[in-house]
Amino acid sequence: MKWRIIANGSTDNREGIIKAVSRGGEVLVEGGSAIDAVEASISTMEDDPNFDAGTGCDINLFGLIMMDAGIMDGRQLRAGAIGAVRGIKNPILVARRLMDKTSNVLLVGEGAEEFAKTISRIDPKVKVGYDARTEDKIKKFKNEMRKILDEELAIDILSNPGGSSMTLFRLLEGDKRAELQKKLSSIRDSGTVSASALDKDGNYAAGASTGGWTFAFPGRIGDSPIIGCGSYADNRCGCSSTAGIRGEENMLLGGLTRRVCDRMENGKSAQLAVEEVTRYALDRIGLNLKRGSLIAIDKNGDFGFNYEQTAPALSIALMEEGKRLPKIPF
User: Fold this and answer.
1) Which of 44, 63, 122, 216 could tie 158 with a disulfide, CB 3.0–4.6 Å?
2) Tally of structural domains, the chain
3) Angstrom distance (rounded) from CA 239 to CA 48
4) What pLDDT, in 10s, does the model give residues 209-255?
5) Active-site positions?
6) What is the rounded CA–CA span in Å between residue 225 and residue 108?
7) How far apart are CA 222 and CA 85, in angstroms?
């Protein structure tokens, strides 16, 4: 079977998405597996500060970065995922190690961080104690906070996150609490990155990684580590992953990537499956995917993506065996 790989990221970073797909393609050219290609592609995007995953993640309500990631191997329906973690350079690597080395599927918070620390002692690729905040994201956080609260508080949150938590919550109490919460949760930035792949042996894999969005509530977990939401893969039908869709909406819909795979298992092409699920999301809860995208690869190795609703500021790239360079589909 001819290998395939497709990736997306909810920001206008075509150079970055091409680099990520090229890296995954290199793995497949060398005979690597689909799961290796997905890991390589996503970790490349995590290293790019222009994506909201790994380095360059958005900063949450307390001035911290909390990351999520998940990955799935369609050969034996194995998966690994971590959520609400700090200090990890490439969360997708930790999710992969969790899948390979334990019987767990999802670890969150301190437990996931402890697992990462343990793995880092024997795997030099896994780096912990890492501050993923960039100057650009710190500046953006301060500017947005100034618009809503005041300059002094914004700077204080970044310099001493823990000590400022109760101060901020006090501001959110009383009559203004609901109003401020609404304003904070409405601020959206770049979101998830994801990748899906098919290797020459007919194996499928998919994964996703994110840092959430500016002012997300600490402890929040998005759709990236939720198997069937951020990504899903099954050799019986294909694979699918998503970027930029608000995790809460994805979860309420029962997992868009699993819905895409269900349709492909019932004989729909990747393109038709993605289009049907995109319409379902719009019809059921009014979810317009202009800030995100669904991508997929079906049993025949054909690609699918929701190009009709996708906004210009979203990068999608794909690559297939026999082609020297990745392709931007639109």
Assistant:
1) 63
2) 2
3) 24
4) 999 877 788 889 999 999 999 999 999 999 999 998 888 899 999 99
5) 192
6) 9
7) 12
